[in-house]
Amino acid sequence: MSAVAASLSSSSSSFSSFSSFSPNPYLSDAQYALLSLRGLVRDAAAATAAFDPAETERQCRLVEGARQLTLADMESEFRALGYRFDRARDCLGNALHMAGARAGLCYPCVSPDPVQVSDGRSAWHWQARRDSKFRRMQALRGEIFAVYRNRIYEV
Questions:
Q1: What is the chain written as a DSSP string?
Q2: What percent of the chain has pLDDT over 90?
Q3: b/e 131-141 (16+ beta carbons within 10 angstroms → b)
Q4: Rounded CA separation 57/51 (Å)
Q5: Sheet of 144-148, strands arranged across
Q6: pLDDT by residue (tens digit) across 3-21?
């Protein structure tokens, strides 16, 4: 019998005996292990402190090479391409990573709606322009982000 099978057969089947190695009740074991491997949690005291998903996401994006801008700078980058943000159509929510190294982690986000300055049509409308500026705007989406009021702003 393997060591794992022996430990499973010797353990109680009730959920009350289940113990997690994550010292933070808000983090799953997988999330804690991922943050530990990334160097974002260095000890149990740091893990038991209030978990800030927006700060964790910000740090991970910076490590991956994304640029953090102020919200005004982010808007000016889009305006240079002929887009502005329609703030009445901001989408607030929690984004969840579905795959990759951060699968299962979520963070608070706001997704502003870029609209064309020329006619006010959403960039995602089927009749919106599809020129080189549109393709640059699509690429820019993965390159920049902003943090405001503890939310990640991303298009």
A1: --HHHHHHHHS-SSGGG---S-S-TTS-HHHHHHHHHTTS--SHHHHHSPP-HHHHHHHHHHHTTPEEE-HHHHHHHHHTTTEEEEEEEEEEEEEE--SSTTTT-EEEEEEEEEEETTT--BTTSTTS--SHHHHHHHHHHTTEEEEETTEEE--
A2: 55
A3: eeebeebeebe
A4: 11
A5: 67-69, 144-148, 151-153, 106-116, 83-96
A6: 444 443 444 443 333 444 5
What does the pLDDT read at residue 28?
A: 65
Q: Which residues of 75-89 are buried (b: 16+ CB within 10 A; e: fewer)?
A: bebbeebbbbbeeee
What would the two tokens of residue 149 be?
């009021």
Closest CA to 129 of 144, 142, 143, 114: 114
Please give the model's pTM, rounded to 2 decimal places.
0.66
Kindly state the average pLDDT of the residues 104-110: 92
Q: CA–CA separation, 86 vs 49, rounded Å?
A: 37
